[in-house]
Amino acid sequence: MRIAMWSGPRNISTAMMRSFENRPDTAVVDEPFYAAYLQMTGIDHPMTPEIIEAGETDWTKVVEFLLGPVPGSCPVFYQKQMTHHMIEGVGRDWLDDVVNVFLIRRPENVLASYSAKREEVTLRDIGFQEQADIFDEVADRLGKAPPVIDAADVLADPRAALTRLCEVVGIPFSENMLTWPAGRRASDGVWAPHWYGAVEKSTGFSPPSKAVAYEELSEDLKPICDDARPLYEKLARHRIMGETAKD
Questions:
Q1: What is the pLDDT of residues 174-202, one digit of tens each?
Q2: SS3 assignment, position 11
Q3: Which domains, ranges and CATH numbers included, belong to the chain?
Q4: pTM: predicted TM-score of the whole model, two decimal places
Q5: Cα–Cα distance between 203 and 92 in angstroms, integer?
Q6: Which protein family is it in (predicted)?
């Protein structure tokens, strides 16, 4: 069972990776296309030289790893994937060989969190358009909508949301997914010191955070939110839980 969890940044994606990694039957990989993305685009991100040095810059070799022997011979291989890393020139045929799940979050909350880490933000940076594009591609191949889970639902009731997610992808729920030891992991990307401060202190999913209002966003972020909102709402219609909670 290979699970590709597609999200943008600042979307409880690392906490979800922690949750799956704490299962005794699961191996994880953290943003495997990141180095290739930086090498191919020339985009300047925090710790770019270190990420390129530590990672695999040939996307075809990344795919070989994702579809090859699972680390530790585990029966479940959880792949934390960033949608904006799937740029033009990176093939997607391999998506047929994994279970694709889409992790979404309200754009207001994403933008508020992301802008606290980087001064300049674009729609491309937060991956909403790419997430919608990958969702459509997977849906076309499946002939139905792939699973979508909202971060708000996970934070509101982790047990119910993760139980439902496991049911949908076809693995048993594990109590180990609800809590984990604090600290850094060997599986964390080299970029962890910049991005993972909060999750390194965590021992489980945090309580739902205050919903960021549109009016609270800076003027330069509001147009990005306007573009991201219909993309979020499009996927939210297919979420596997009931009415989305407010995060």
A1: 999 999 999 999 999 999 998 898 899 99
A2: coil
A3: 2-236 (3.40.50.300)
A4: 0.94
A5: 34
A6: Belongs to the class-IV pyridoxal-phosphate-dependent aminotransferase family.
